[in-house]
Amino acid sequence: MARKRKGQPVHGWVVFDKPKGMSSSQAVGKVRYLLDAQKAGHGGTLDPLATGILPIALGEATKTMSFVMDGAKTYRCWVRFGEARSTDDAEGEVIETSEVRPTATEIEAVLSEFEGDIEQIPPIYSAIKIDGQRAYKLARDNQEVEMQSRTVRIDRITLVEMPEPDLAVIDVDCGKGTYIRSLARDLAVRLGTVGFVADLRRTRVGPFVENQAISLDSLESLGHSARLEEAVLPIMTVLDDIPALALTEVEAGNMRHGMPAPAMTVLGRTPDVKVTQGETVIVMDGDAPLALARIEGGEIRPVRVLNL
After folding, report:
1. What DSSP letter does each residue of 141-162 carry, written as one string?
2. What is the set of domains in the chain, with CATH numbers?
3. Which of the residues 17, 36, 47, 70 is marked catalytic?
4. How far apart are CA 264 and CA 283, in angstroms?
5. Rounded to an integer, what distance in angstroms lies between the CA atom of residue 232 and that of residue 219?
6. Dihedral (Cα; 42, 45, 50, 56), 10-degree rounding
């Protein structure tokens, strides 16, 4: 007999404003505790050094996490020139220095080289697995770590200001898998110097933006009260860009038990919704999302049923 989960069946998303020094897993545990939720997970890791948006999925929203993790992200990055660090951020040891300090004009002149699809070598202190082990664990054990180059996408990179001669504030819009620490390191090298991420804040993840974020202090001040529900956004928040198809009561009942629905019949009721073979859709039981499904042949097949 399966063990009953502790907590309440809370379903939805919390746009958590992660404080500095807290790991992503610690943040999930804290939010889960404050909301007394049975199940929780995060939609994209954020380093302990960084602050900002960490989307946390609760309950059945965990089945939609890929739509957030695969989404575009925006960061504000503080790049300190003149020192290279072992971790490419402020937590590491100084491993190289340089007297070169690029000007704002020099920085702006090369930023376009880092836009589009670019090759990037992740930091050795990262969660990427090498032969089954995390790279950061191998690095901390003083084992040789060889990181492979990967293609990432940067849609936009802009210089915001230079508050100090050796400090540049940069905004980055990027895709999944981009390492801002690697970007700062490579930008510094391109400018004939060395550098590291002195500070980092994530301001957007997929559909979630900074003004939606709720701080730890705000969550704690709400306590275990009904007002906590105000911090939980609906599951549909991350599914707005996915075609939605309405099912009849019979079709919904069948799909809830893993059975497909006839595509021609369902699509015939919503001729304005255009879908293609293999495309993911969200099927609705009235106003409630019922399942993530896929068009296969002449059927709409459930992929992840939401038990709401």
Report:
1. TT----PPPEEEEEEEEEEEEE
2. 12-71+208-238 (3.30.2350.10), 73-205 (3.30.2350.10), 244-305 (2.30.130.10)
3. 47
4. 14
5. 11
6. -10
Which tens digit of pLDDT belongs to each residue from 197-244? 999 999 999 999 999 999 999 888 876 555 667 789 999 998 888 889
pLDDT at 139: 47
Element (H, E) at 269: helix 263-269
Tell the residue number behind the tokens 């930023």, with chain if given: 111
Name 176's bridge partners: none
Structure tokens at 111: 């930023």
Mark whether 131 is an active-site residue.
no
Name the token pair of 267.
């699509």
pLDDT single digits (tens) 40-73: 998 888 888 899 999 999 999 999 998 888 889 9
